[in-house]
Amino acid sequence: MSERVFLIFLFACGAVYLYFGLKIEVPFAYEPLGPRTFPVLLGCCLATLSVLALVIHPMSTMPLKGSVAKLGLAVLFYLLTFQLLGFMPATTISTYIIARLVGSSWMQGLLTGLILAIAFYGIFHFLLGVPLPLGSLFHLGG
Amino acid sequence: METLHFFWQGFITAAMPINLLMLVAGISLGMLVGAIPGISAANGIALMLPVTYTFGLAPETALILYAGIYYGAKYSGRISAILADVPGDISSFATRNEGYPLALSGSAGKALALTAASSFVGGTLAILLLTGTAAFFADIGSAFGPPEYFVLIFFVFVLILTLSSTVFIKNLISLCLGLMMSVVGLDWGTGAFRYTSTIPELFDGIDFIIVVIGVFALSEAFLLMEKPGRGRKETVPIEDQVHGLIPQYLRIKWSCLRASIIGLLIGILPGAGTYVANLAAYRFEKKLGPGKNETPFGKGNIHGLIAPEAANSACALAAFIPLMALGIPGSATTAVLHGALLQMNIDPGPTLCRSHPEIIWAMIASMYFGNLLLLLINIKLIRYFPRVLAIPGWVLMPMIVVVSFVSVYAVSESLVSLLLMVLIGIFSYGLRKFNYPLAPLVLGYVLGKPFEDNLRLALAISGGDFAVLWQNWITILLWSCILFSIVAKAVVQLRSSSRQ
């Protein structure tokens, strides 16, 4: 991905931000600036700055490495399964995938996954009292 | 007299068992995250936020814990810098220049012990300064109203833009993005919803923990993924025994003092950070040159070894002065501390020293204990720390991801928050890839709300008259500082471009 694409993305962000900033409804306004000024200014700022950076700066490119993209997919997978499968299965599977990506053997990956899943569930559920999801797929814990 | 009283009270609070326990926990965790290259103090604090949340720790206890993580990490960044030529924390960047050659020549133990001692001296000087000035700043802080606070935050923004070594426009974009994130949520004055759509998770603004974990922890995992071999260089074993540390140390006391002063000065100024202090102190020593019969620089010079470490410890702790005194964080990590205070319903503004002296003084007192403890740990137990560096990547990486998810989930049990964290993480990875600094983003996010609110408050009071922003001596002084830093930056820029 090149920096140019990134800056165009930033510009789009600024434009969208500006658009929704202008649409902020003011129920009543008794102060001089109001809630709209700041967002509108920021949206303009980001759009202008990204165009400026596009014009005046030499652009670098960075190839998106396969390993990083794979990690991104693994994280997305974790995100999607977190509530669906429940914390423990999702953690075990995702940890296994990530560990394999970094170059572990399958045994190491599996062990890391199981230990992480059980340890974190134990710490958060019993020690801190944070209920981690048990998996809506199995109709456990909602 | 009042100060002495507060100070004594602070010591009593800091010596309470729970606070001592948290201090030890914070320091150990700090040393751990500092020693492992790729994980920084900000990550450590970010990951502890939900824990203090759910345990319901008292504010001073939580602050002692966070501060411990922070300076513990700055203290131990040198371990891998010396043993493996990889700075464990960016603030030990210059330490490897002399540390690694020394370790190769078989004096790793000596190098670690001497840097521990110099970090201790630098840190202690900074705490003394903090103790001495806290009361004074409390008085200044009470003179701050909305216009003054607005101009002060503006000054911090200008400083972080001008003092940083990265490209100016990238700094500005990063700051802008941070401010944009701070706008999200219910507007305090008018009840207008801004950028919330109908997502209830956004009504209160993007949660602080989501931003911090996304920006620091998750994006770090992506960066680590690129270089799985990083930090896996052979670590040099510690073989030598250290004898007669004190006489050795007395020989280098002046470089240590010089470097500490450099660190203090840079630490007080928001925006520069420990990395700059570390590098500046090293360059200064190098300029002075090696003394007679001393090893040349780059081959293991003792002065060049200890100066950067004294400077970064002094700087790390001196950064608490603007944070505590005026509620102004100067670096990414102190911004995280600032946000953590907000989470505990403490407003870390200029009035912090006045309204919550007990918290501030308990933290300052605990820093004396903490610094002493770090010295002891670093001299007595240093032999066990290289093992930490051997944590394999396949344990570390999944752990970062899992801990990030669990931390966010602990605070807000919803998929939307997790998704937001992942998106912010991926986006920050992009920013980091293209060399956009993250410190302005975090500062903008943390200070964005008070920035906007104080401006609007000031204008509401004055009835829309902008002159309120430069009406008394404090604001005029701040504006002249702003002008000065801009002019200075412009001059430096012009000079460097004409030289090329």
Describe it:
The complex is a heterodimer of chains A (142) and B (500). Chain A has 142 residues and is mainly α. Chain A has two domains: 3-56; 66-138, no CATH class. Chain A is built from five helices and no strands. The mean pLDDT of chain A is 85. With 500 residues, chain B is mostly helical. Chain B is 72% helix and 1% strand. Chain B contains 21 helices and two strands. Chain B has helices spanning 2-14, 17-35, 41-55, 59-84, 96-104, 108-141, 146-163, 168-183, 208-226, 245-251, 253-268, 274-288, 302-318, 320-326, 332-343, 352-355, 357-380, 393-411, 415-433, 439-462, 473-499, and strands spanning 185-186, 193-194. Chain B has a two-stranded antiparallel ribbon with strand order 1-2. Chains A and B meet through helix 1, helix 2, helix 3, helix 4 and helix 5 of A and helix 3, helix 8, strand 2, helix 9 and helix 18 of B.
Put simply, the count of helices of chain A is: 5
What's the mean pLDDT score of chain B?
85
Strand content of chain B: under 5%
Number of domains of chain A: 2
Q: Multimeric state of these chains?
A: heterodimer
Biggest interface between chains: A-B, 70 and 61 residues
- Biggest sheet record of chain B: 2 strands, antiparallel
Query: Helix and strand succession of chain B?
Result: HHHHHHHHEEHHHHHHHHHHHHH
Distance between the termini of chain A: 41 Å
Poorly predicted tracts of residues of chain A: none
Number of domains of chain B: 1
Helix count of chain B equals 21
The proportion of residues forming helix of chain B, as a percent range, comes to over 70%
Strand % of chain A is under 5%
Mean residue pLDDT of chain A: 85
